[in-house]
Amino acid sequence: xxxxxxxxxxxxxxxxxxxxxxxxxxxxxxxxxxxxxxxxxxxxxxxxxxxxxxxxxxxxxxxxxxxxxxxxxxxxxxxxxxxxxxxxxxxxxxxxxxxxxxxxxxxxxxxxxxxxxxxxxxxxxxxxxxxxxxxxxxxxxxxxxxxxxxxxxxxxxxxxxxxxxxxxxxxxxxxxxxxxxxxxxxxxxxxxxxxxxxxxxxxxxxxxxxxxxxxxxxxxxxxxxxxxxxxxxxxxxxxxxxxxxxxxxxxxxxxxxxxxxxxxxxxxxxxxxxxxxxxxxxxxxxxxxxxxxxxxxxxxxxxxxxxxxxxxxxxxxxxxxxxxxxxxxxxxxxxxxxxxxxxxxxxxxxxxxxxxxxxxxxxxxxxxxxxxxxxxxxxxxxxxxxxxxxxxxxxxxxxxxxxxxxxxxxxxxxxxxxxxxxxxxxxxxxxxxxxxxxxxxxxxxxxx
Length: 448
Ligand code: BGC
What we know:
There is one protein chain. The protein has helices at about 10-20, 25-40, 100-105, 110-125, 170-180, 190-205, 250-260, 270-275, 275-290, 310-320, 325-335, 340-375, 390-395, 395-410, 410-415, 425-445, and strands at about 50, 65-70, 75-85, 90-100, 130-135, 140-145, 150, 185-190, 215-220, 220-225, 235, 380-385, 415-420. The chain is of the alpha/beta class. The strands form 3 sheets. It has a 6-stranded mixed sheet, with helices on both faces. Helix 6 (about 190-205) packs across helix 16. The chain is globular and about 70 Å long. Beta-D-glucopyranose binds near residues 219, 221 and 237.
């Protein structure tokens, strides 16, 4: 028989309340976030990298065929996108590639060979001729031009030896040559947040609307990009924001301290809000509570005893179960190796909801931090383009964020902030960025 989960009620209530965040705490986080944006832009340090992107807003009229690559996690995609102008885009072909755990911790060349092989599978089927390539690299990188991106320390559990400090566009170019794909040229590299922002702008401008102001990813990792006017479109690398100590729990402190990648102290916001970590936080709390009950054999022999065995998809499943007896939570816990009473399932559900609720509230506070830099009194309409599996997959996540914004700034101002879910935006966004780069390049050569 599977071990039982059981927690003392007071300890459960205490753990749930540890994940609650007051409006005052969120206000102060938003203020710190705005201040750190200014600090990063001034080159005065701080936890927000404010990286340059070398791209600008599209007109909405960009057109042509572009090869795209989207890499920022275990699964990536290579494809061909046809931009039709007027905000239209069509995915012509697509190939998925997957990395093994060994590759995620291995050498540089094999990783880029996996990417190049997938590009080969889509390009080989295309008519001859040269193709530009837009490369979405969803890790921190310091761009030195639109097609030169120096890798910084990796995130989301990756550790490719020797990648840091190298130009990922050049590495992809080398891998393409090894694969005999000289006709494909890496013409633009962008972060996924930038691709999401740019795709929303392309669609909107193509239909006569206004461009997006912020791009947000909330999936395995998290990050924001923003159009900061004179400072250009910047990749904030907001997952690294460190102003979260007022709302951290002992579980967050331990999680941060015990991970080698990213190192302790790095990616503090990401470790509290993104999909890679939410299941792990729940696992730690449940395991701890179970251990504290004398005589409980339970969680020690279930998935709750194994780091990262509980995933954010599980939290989505817990939230989606509307049955009286929490039947699907029951089934899920059995899959994870634990039997439970209905009360225990309610406890797990309350905890899971509290952990995700804190994530949504922190996301709202940090978005507010960026919005206030764009417009201190929030007088104008603003558009936030969002993509990512947690945002798209967790029931009600968008409403939690929207509700927190109303709580913090009132309904009238919150109504001026439009949040658009741009599903599967990154590959198509990369195509638009490559097309913008091509247009910028030809404008430069005709004026120079
Ligand atoms: C990376 C960002 C990326 C985000 C979302 C973070 O871990 O550092 O570059 O935008 O994940 O994919």
